[in-house]
Design brief:
The structure holds two protein chains of two kinds. Chain A is built from 14 helices and two strands. Chain A is mostly helical. Classes of the chains: A mainly alpha, B mainly alpha.
Chain lengths: 324, 260
């Protein structure tokens, strides 16, 4: 009501100015607040992509639950994957506050109009990949998510706070797998090195294209949807990972990596962006498989959802009749 | 060795075997339910099924861990899970059946959860204090499992024509595996006599009363033509278990002596 009155009395330009002032003052935007349509759409794109990534990300790790090499590892991996499902849920719910339904988001995922993190198009081939994913993929995700705890949209920022707590547990479990492998038998150490080699570069690409190439970056920074640029976050991740690789006694996959005294950061080798775009554009090992898997589970479950709805309708009807 | 020392050794081995077979039940079913991850009808169910799987895997760890302690020969919980072959597993057959569709999974869970409700209650009265402690923890989980499988059975039985058909089909396919749940072999009989093991024959009536009541409310039927497949406790399994174990044990066995 109040919103409508404000809307009627203030011009769009005026509303946008007030909106930006609020953001500049580090106040959160809440679901019922006025927001530019482009802000809303940008958030829906980013948050639903984030939710889809959590959900699709269950597949490469789910691939190893039944083969986990100890009962403890099986339990830990299963609870980790279950957490990812939980993250998907919070994020779908948070995105729903922007006026889109979960069913619409799922449809967008399944028809390819919404994306998920391209890292999940890479296959998980060994147990070492469970270590590498927890350590590197979740590690890269945390760098991004820690900064998103300060994002300008309230429900997104709050869901990130909760998700970050669980993600840091995930990263530790991944690194712990790597420690066991790297300090284990020669065959285990080779497994760890192989997983690091395959997942290191794709993890760096999770931060997205260079800032100069990033389609959504500038405006997202102005609206404080994003708080740090792709390249800054990537640099943080590169820097923090070096000593972790050293501790494991593994070889760093980046042969051009050198410490830059002046910048007090590492200079690293150039990423193979052709490969990155090639995988995004459908040439990854698992692109089709991931979506087909999601579609199949969804379709196989249709009768369950229909039965639930029918049962609820019958119960409601009975309650109405009983009350009358 | 005197007769009484020999008896002690035998009863300890009996206890180990009993604990291991209870562990087998838990790990095999836990493994089956874990196959649902990312396959559920909606996200909330992925989480719920994951919870139930975790409860069973946790139960297996407690039981195998106890068997390892009793064995006192350097074995670990993992040795029991990963280094025994199909013929050595003594889980009830119902646990190893493939996950099937959602109706199949729910039906199996209903029968097993209700069974565990009575089994674990009886196990809390065991003469073995460790089994009592495990049963007390597991009972709390089973209370939740029963609530879940009961409400799903009602929902699917009284949902749509298709859901009812699928549930009835699952019941018809699984029912014959329920009978051996209430039969004890010589090993269990010896442990029943010393107050350690559960006399499962006594659980049949209360279990059947519960099942009938839920089926009746859900509009489902116990199959008229009765049939029974038996053999789990003798290591006489369906062809499904071998494939489950192949998958579960492959990494562990590929790297003998490795830590994970």
């Amino acid at each position: 009501m109040v919103n409508n009155m404000i809307k009627n009395t203030l011009s769009e330009i005026e509303l946008e100015r007030l909106f930006q002032e609020k953001i500049d003052a580090e106040q959160k935007i809440e679901p019922k607040d006025w927001m530019p349509d482009a802000y809303r759409q940008n958030l829906i794109r980013q948050m639903s992509q984030h939710a889809h990534s959590e959900v699709i990300g269950m597949q490469p790790e789910g691939n190893w639950i039944t083969r986990a090499p100890s009962l403890r590892r099986k339990a830990v991996l299963l609870s980790k994957v279950q957490d990812e499902a939980g993250h998907g849920l919070y994020l779908y719910s948070a995105t729903e506050t922007l006026g889109i339904s979960r069913a619409q988001m799922i449809e967008a995922l399944q028809t390819g109009t919404a994306k998920y993190a391209s890292i999940f198009n890479y296959p998980t081939q060994t147990w070492g990949d469970m270590g590498a994913i927890g350590w590197l993929v979740d590690g890269a995700a945390i760098c991004n998510q820690v900064s998103l705890q300060r994002t300008s949209y309230g429900p997104y920022a709050r869901s990130m706070i909760r998700i970050c707590k669980e993600e840091s547990f995930h990263q530790r479990q991944g690194y712990q797998i790597m420690i066991e492998l790297a300090h284990g038998t020669p065959a285990q150490k080779a497994m760890a090195q192989d997983s690091l080699n395959r997942f290191y570069w794709p993890s760096l690409m999770m931060f997205g294209p260079h800032d100069s190439e990033s389609a959504h970056s500038a405006r997202s920074m102005k609206w404080k949807i994003k708080r740090e640029t792709n390249d800054d976050l990537r640099q943080k991740f590169i820097d923090q990972t070096v000593s972790q690789i050293t501790f494991l006694g593994l070889e760093h996959p980046d042969k051009d990596l050198v410490w830059n005294e002046k910048r007090e950061q590492y200079d690293s080798g150039e990423l193979d962006w052709d490969e990155f775009y090639s995988v995004i554009n459908g040439n990854g090992h698992c692109n089709r498989q991931r979506i087909q898997h999601h579609v199949k589970a969804h379709e196989d479950g249709a009768w369950v959802r229909e039965a639930t709805a029918a049962y609820n309708r019958k119960k409601e009807l009975k309650q109405t009749v009983d009350a009358a | 060795m005197t007769q009484s020392t020999q008896n002690k050794v035998d009863s300890k081995q009996d206890l180990i075997n009993y604990v291991v077979r209870l562990g087998d039940d838990a790990i095999v079913l836990g493994h089956r339910i874990s196959e649902w991850v990312s396959e559920g009808p909606f996200l909330e169910e992925d989480i719920a099924l994951g919870n139930v799987a975790l409860d069973y895997i946790g139960r297996a760890r407690m039981l195998y861990g106890y068997a390892a302690t009793l064995s006192d020969d350097g074995k670990t919980e993992d040795d029991f899970a990963f280094l025994r072959d199909e013929r050595q597993f003594e889980n009830y057959l119902i646990n190893e059946l493939p996950r099937g569709d959602f109706a199949y999974t729910i039906t199996r869970q209903l029968l097993v959860d209700l069974y565990n409700k009575y089994y674990l209650l009886a196990l809390t009265k065991s003469a073995d204090p460790t089994l009592v402690a495990i049963a007390q923890k597991a009972r709390k989980e089973t209370t939740y499992h029963c609530r879940r499988s009961t409400s799903w059975t009602l929902r699917l039985g009284d949902g749509t024509t298709e859901s009812k058909q699928r549930m009835q089909l699952a019941i018809d396919d699984i029912w014959g595996y329920s009978h051996e749940l209430f039969e004890s072999d010589a090993l269990e009989q010896r442990l029943i006599d010393t107050g350690v093991a559960v006399d499962c024959a006594a659980l049949k009536q209360p279990w059947l009363t519960d099942v009938k009541a839920i089926f009746e409310e859900a509009g489902l039927n116990i199959p008229q033509q009765d049939w029974a497949v038996r053999g789990g406790r003798k290591g006489y399994h369906s062809e499904h278990l071998g494939h489950l174990l192949t998958q579960m044990q492959f990494v562990y066995r590929s790297f003998p002596g490795a830590n994970w």
